[in-house]
TrEMBL record:
Binding residue positions for GTP: 112-119, 195-199, 253-256
All copies of domain SRP54-type proteins GTP-binding, residue ranges: 274-287
Subcellular localization: Cell inner membrane; Cytoplasm
Gene (name only): ffh
Biological role: Involved in targeting and insertion of nascent membrane proteins into the cytoplasmic membrane. Binds to the hydrophobic signal sequence of the ribosome-nascent chain (RNC) as it emerges from the ribosomes. The SRP-RNC complex is then targeted to the cytoplasmic membrane where it interacts with the SRP receptor FtsY. Interaction with FtsY leads to the transfer of the RNC complex to the Sec translocase for insertion into the membrane, the hydrolysis of GTP by both Ffh and FtsY, and the dissociation of the SRP-FtsY complex into the individual components.
Name of protein: Signal recognition particle protein
Residues of the full protein shown: 1 to 301 of 461
Family label: Belongs to the GTP-binding SRP family. SRP54 subfamily.
Length: 301
């Protein structure tokens, strides 16, 4: 992810470095190039405007131009603006990672479109909670629409060495959710992960089903899984889920691919929800924490 954006921004900064002293015109030209690079990376327009304005405010003027290494100053300003767009601004602390600060069993609801990587991510989170946080985790698939979905989650649970809720044919998603919470309470689980059904596109029935389950289980975290490769569509999907269901965080998958990265940079501003985790591969241990500062360094690196 971010390869093209990264190489374009680095091109801009290399040119600035070669100039040494910078005029207002040099900075303005660099800003134009930064703008184009962000747009080409599929960053949402309002986010591009905001980013460029912040850099302009910080960069244009005597201080930067007279500083010892003006290009370095501009890079720092761009870095800070990227960190902020990624959700690393003040007041965002503590919203990263999964919040388990609630009475056990803590319900976590996984939502998203089919193929986004939702079921795989449920398995990844289960593995992490078991191994890193020493939690007793129950996985339950509420996907009664896709016949193989419940079996797929059971297989992932086995790989992650956590329990999956026994499958009872004919139960509705709501019945499965209630049964999962009941087993979670009786058998003293720390966390119950509820993997809901996805659809190929947003539709009313999907939203209604997810909203009902959310109401009934009162999840402490509602994590939306989106595929970074789908770019602007991922942002639109997130906006729809945020408006209709309400999510507490976003997991962006397939960052191991060649996604342009605009979705990651737009998500916070468009949805208000923080990206909490990144999926970086098909294997169950390919789950990363989301650190805005590290992502910004990756882009500018
Ligand atoms: P769901 O329909 O949303 O539950 O999606 P799945 O979890 O079944 O994932 C669909 C496909 O994407 C599977 O082949 C996964 O192995 C793959 N996948 C999931 N997450 C990632 C990721 O972060 N990177 C890559 N490269 N593939 C992933």
């Amino acid at each position: 992810m971010f390869e093209a954006l990264s190489s374009k921004l680095n091109g801009v900064f290399d040119r600035l470095r070669r100039r040494g002293a910078l005029s207002d015109a040099d900075v303005a030209e660099a800003l134009r190039e930064v703008r184009v690079a962000l747009l080409e990376a599929d960053v949402a327009l309002p986010v591009v405007r905001d980013l460029v304005n912040k850099v302009r405010e910080g960069a244009v003027g005597q201080e930067v131009i007279r500083s010892v290494s003006p290009a370095q100053q501009v890079i720092k300003i761009v870095n800070d603006a990227l960190v902020e767009a990624l959700g690393g601004g003040e007041g965002d602390d503590g919203k990263r990672g999964i919040d388990l600060n609630a009475p056990s069993p803590v319900p976590i609801l996984m939502v998203g479109l089919q193929g986004s990587g939702k079921t795989t991510t449920s398995g990844k989170i289960a593995l992490r909670l078991r191994t890193r946080d020493k939690k007793k985790v129950l996985l339950a698939s509420l996907d009664v629409h896709r016949p193989a979905a419940q079996l797929q989650l059971a297989t992932l649970a086995q790989q992650a060495e956590v329990t999956s809720l026994p499958i009872i044919a004919g139960q509705t998603p709501m019945q499965i959710a209630m049964r999962a919470m009941d087993v979670g309470r009786r058998e003293l689980y720390d966390v119950v992960i509820l993997d809901t059904a996805g659809r190929l596109a947003i539709d009313e029935a999907l939203m209604e089903e997810v909203a009902q389950v959310k109401l009934a289980t009162n999840p402490h975290e509602t994590l939306l899984v989106v595929d970074a490769m789908t770019g602007q569509d991922a942002v639109n999907t997130a906006k729809a889920f945020q408006d209709k269901v309400g999510v507490t965080g976003i997991v962006m998958t397939r960052i191991d691919g060649d996604a342009r990265g605009g979705a990651a940079l737009s998500m916070r501003a468009v949805t208000g929800a923080p990206i909490k985790l990144l999926g970086a591969g098909e294997k169950l241990d390919a789950l990363e924490d989301f650190h805005p500062d590290r992502i910004a360094s990756r882009i500018l690196g």
